Amino acid sequence: MARDFYDVLGVSRDAGRDELQQAFRRLARQNHPDVNRDPGAEERFKEVNEAYSVLSDPKQRKKYDRFGDDFRQVPDDWEERVGAAAGAGRGGPGPRGRRTTRTTGADAGADYVDFGGGGFRSDFGGGIDIEDLLGGMFAGRAGARIGPLAGADQEAELPLTVEEAYRGGRREITLNGPDGPRTYTVTIPPGVTDGRRIRLAGEGGRGMGDGPAGDLYLIVRLQPHPVFRVEGKDITVQLRVAPWESALGATVPVTTPGGATKVTVPPGSSSGRRLRLRGEGMPDTRGGPGDLYAEVRVMVPPHPSDRERELFSELAQVSTFDPRGHSRQEARAGRR
Predict the structure, then answer these.
(1) What domains are defined for the chain?
(2) Per its UniProt record, what CDD domains does this chain match (predicted)?
(3) Which residues of the chain have pLDDT under 50?
(4) Coil, strand or helix: which one is 224?
(5) Is the pTM higher than 0.70?
(6) Per-residue pLDDT tens digits for 51-62
(7) Which element (helix H / strand E) includes 334?
(8) CA distance 251 to 117
(9) CA distance to 143, 187, 196, 197, per residue, from 200 (Å)
(10) CA–CA separation, 101 vs 113, rounded Å?
(11) 295 φψ region: left (φ > 0), alpha (ψ -120 to 50), beta (else)
(12) Cα–Cα distance, 94 to 102 (Å, whole number)
């Protein structure tokens, strides 16, 4: 089976035009036969060209995302045919599986084919059987030969904790399918991010005739975490410090998904200041790791002792610091 075009370019499936172009230029330079004498360079150069020519064309990319390696067999007006088929099907026999509709989450409104317990999502919305539809398309061509057709790709969600996504590793999951529950051993890349698709080749829908089975894509869904907030490859964590650590500066421990480390709090750090720990975010085998941001939050003793109260009172008497002075200056500037 040919390599996935996104893997060839080393980009995510939601990569924009600029990201595609940058990846193509970089890989084309690396593998151009005029500059790279490696015996496999020319083949990689052709592969990169083919991947970019498809993904940089919105119509071709849409078909590729839908149909995978068989996208070239699908006519350009497939969407119109799907619409016609959906209209004609109203009131007729239903799909093979029981169709349900997700009502929450990012995929709200998407149609799911639930084969008695859920698990897989058809790559097609609207409850249309992709295999029947494609068969109808090709049969409708004058003189066209109906050959083997690959099975439809399918999707399922893979919930992960931040720690699981950070470490990666192997994990067993069980999904319900038309033939009952199936268990898969999945390799999770370290640093996998929310929305990333993990491909299980040949584990999707059955093919027609001698056609190969489709692929199963597991869509990573990071679960909310009480400590870590993940945005792409970057992680943010609150860093609670005492007033004296905030005022005088200190080196304090901070928790990361990979374990505890230390961060230096510069003197005069108020709440909201973000301290960057370069490379301590999510690991990334394809490029550089993300960063970890420790967001300073100044905490005061909830029940100060008599001595602490005495010291704070003394500080209040001798200090000339006005924490609201900056706001008053801004207010006066706004009135002028």
Answers:
(1) 5-75 (1.10.287.110), 154-222 (2.60.260.20), 228-318 (2.60.260.20)
(2) DnaJ, DnaJ_C
(3) 85-129, 131, 136, 138-144
(4) coil
(5) no
(6) 888 898 888 888
(7) helix 325-335
(8) 52
(9) 35, 10, 13, 10
(10) 9
(11) beta
(12) 18
